[in-house]
Amino acid sequence: MIKKRWRMNKERMTAILMLLPSVILLGVFVYGFIIQTAYSSFTDWQGLTSPGDADFIGLENYRDLFSGLLNARFRQSLVNTLFFTIFFIIGCISLGLTFAILLDQGVRFEGFFRLIFLYPMSLSFIVTGTVWRWLFNPGGGINRLPEYFGLDPIGFRWLTDRSQIWKFDWNQVPRYFGFLLMAVLVIYAYRYWRKQQNIWAAVFGLISVATLAWLVTGGADKIQILPVREEHGFNVAMIGIIIAAIWQMAGYVMAMYLAGIRGISDELREAARVDGANEIQVYQKIILPLLQPITLSAMIVLGHISLKIFDLIFVMTGPDYSSTDVPGTLMFVTSFRGNQFATGAAIAIVMLILVAMVIIPYLVTTLRSEHEL
Questions:
Q1: Consecutive 10-residue averages of pLDDT for the chain (373 residues)
Q2: Is domain 71-163+236-372 in CATH 1.10.3720.10, yes or no?
Q3: How far apart are CA 187 and CA 222, in angstroms?
Q4: Structural domain boundaries of the chain?
Q5: Which of 79, 177, 250, 360 could cross-link 95 (Cys pair, CB 3.0–4.6 Å)?
Q6: At 308, phi and psi to the nearest 5?
Q7: CA pseudo-torsion sign 196, 200, 204, 206
């Protein structure tokens, strides 16, 4: 018994010693730097002195980012990220699912087509951005393509277009967040009601009703973020960047969906066909519902990529082009060109929070599901 316990302790100590260097490096160079960045965001550090000599100013940098008149560029970068994330996820999932369904039909040269679809994923965003920047050159590339068919060239300016669509006032953001919060609460209330956990369903239901009453009575309109109207919208120059990003990542989503489809047993499909279902109904009633976990995983991965996108935009339009700003490029400009390191650190922490809002709920749900199994 003593010998067995000694062997177990020896194996545990060996495992700890093997993992200790990685844990130390991770703690210092990842979480240590995150803590340092977070502390710097609460100071007025301008890079002229050491971070420890800067004055502590609390949440002033964050207040200036979201409500300062001189930081409209940061707010537009958040709007750009929002639109980029939405169209990037929708485009990648739509194309990826379409490619996977087409390849699942038993087409000839399936391996060749799978290689073609997966090849862009092997490239870095630097290479992708360089190629698509040439293609979107207003004086050549895609714009000159109709000339080969005897047509006039396209006059679209792609990455250099400064026009905006779908504009809204930044002061309306509390109202939009209120509706979003209400939708989330309703979803959770319905979820707990389906599980017959009536207490939580009632709590979320009451909070959602109170949120709706607050919105209807104009409570959100009383929150004045800025003293003046500040419009933001979808910059048309982002279209080219979205196309390039979808081109690179759609193959990755296709591989996920194709693996999921191939993992569904043929017996389920044959049973549905015996019951009179056609191919469209087989996908609609059998395959697509079983692919929901893959869809969620793809959305999490793509959302994480879109929130911290930097290199693709840096190559295609550069960090100084405000129409295609995202928090990553703006942080680079603010910190390393403007020497406003405290403000840059605040932007980095905002990015960290956005990514955490996507990743942490997914990890909690996954770990909970594994624990229940």
A1: 63 82 89 91 82 84 92 94 95 93 83 86 90 88 85 86 91 90 86 74 86 85 86 93 94 92 84 81 85 89 90 91 91 90 93 87 71 56
A2: yes
A3: 27
A4: 2-41, 71-163+236-372
A5: 250
A6: -115, 20
A7: positive
